[in-house]
Amino acid sequence: MNEMRDLRGFNHKRSVQDYIDETPIWRDGTQVAATPMTAMQWRIWWLAAAGKFFEGLVVFMTGVTLPLMSREFGMDAFQHGLVGAASLAGILVGALLLGGFADQFGRKLMFVAEMVIFIIFLALLAVSPSFGWTVVFLFGIGIALGCDYPTAHLVISESIPSVARGRLVLSAFGFQAVGALTGTLLGYLVLSNIETVSAWRIMYAAAILPAVAVAVARLFVPESASWLLAHGRVEEAQQAAQRLLARSPQYPKSIELAHRHHHAGTAGPGGHDHVHERTPLALLKTPHNRRATILASVPWFLQDLSTYGIGIFTPTILAAAFGHQADVGRNLSDLVSADLLASEGAALVDLLLLVGIGVAVALSDRIGRIPLQIAGFVGCAAGLLVAALSTYYSGDRAVTMVVIGFMLFNFMTNLGPNAQTYLIAGEVFPTRIRGMGAGFAAAFAKIGAVLTAFLFPILLADFGTRTLLFLLIGASLLGAVVTWHYRIETRGRSLDDIGL
């Protein structure tokens, strides 16, 4: 690259994203195909991906730990629902209350704080003395994971080139699927070697040391230069951008930023006061913000109705399909055996989450967010329909149809709504309210997840699998309709220009 030079000039002040997106140019005017990522950009990406990994690990491992918790604490269907919903309810609260703090106090502070909260409650869960405390500690873990929803997205999307934003954000989000699969396999490994009712504690404790390493590493990343600039801290923003874009040879050699946005709490043109933009009312203030709020929130809510119900209770449903629905009266050995069998099936189904996110990563920056989300919703409905039709059969045919249906669902949800709703929520809002907007969307979505996780075991017992799956089919089709009606395509667009 010794022949390269910048033909645009560095004396002209630009936004953070302009510098991040800028590509070198050869002397003859040929532009390099893509901006090379720096070591710091990759470090931020890995640390954000780790947060999604822990979410998948803890939330989806609950399906494996539930039978053992049930035996230890003597849980009924209502208590099963509480355990399944506890971490999701925490995610709702964390995304709503703590997500907005990333706009007020900075991305980095919350990026570190959320992991500290996660570690504390994870350690407490591993030594939980009772059912009640188990629910409380799962809720606390959820608060940390909820904060991570907007924060992890923001630290990535505000640090990387626009052209690669979709695939890099979704690649990090894909670690939720890696965590889900790892949690299921970890549960299987523990159960295979430790046949005791308290084995579920070991499953959760195994994540503590890796989480500590991630928390320490997050202390050494720079603050988001875009956030600093949006708050008028221009000099600090320039220093943060220099750290982010440090490479050898250095490119760009110097950074001079233009303050394009009025930060919260200052007067804009004509003396207009922007302090109200620290409140949720900012999400409804302009036509763009209202449209963005509906697009980011409602399809995600409808998607979570299905994804978390199916994800958490896949082992339970598969156990029923395999003929092991009831655990009353069985000894511990039989209970563990049934849990192992269901875990094997769940691991097979969860593999399709990885395949789906892989395809989403490949296509999101080519096809766009909206087409993939709509196609994914329709595909989810098709997968759930196959699973629902299995209830008209019995034996091996029913089991095969359930597995195929869930595999298709997992592939299509991670290709479409599970991935794209997360991506869209962190892109469609202006910088000054991006954390609050993404946090609100995640919190609103988790209302659906909590309802499903809490009501799923109760409805499963009272109405059966078939009715439940047909209801989720309707929710998926509605998600496709809402996505189309309120569509905002963000593929390839600079975050600095969205919502202005």
TrEMBL record:
Q: Where in the cell is it found?
A: Membrane
Checking SUPFAM superfamilies in the record gives: MFS general substrate transporter
Q: What is this entry's stated membrane topology? A: Multi-pass membrane protein
Identify one Gene Ontology CC term for this UniProt entry.
membrane
Predominant location: membrane
Q: Which UniProt keywords apply?
A: Membrane, Transmembrane, Transmembrane helix, Transport
Query: Does Nucleotide-binding appear among the keywords?
Result: no
The domain of life for this entry's organism is Bacteria
Q: What Gene Ontology molecular function terms does this protein carry? A: transmembrane transporter activity
What is this protein's record name? Answer: MFS family permease
Species of provenance: Xanthobacter flavus
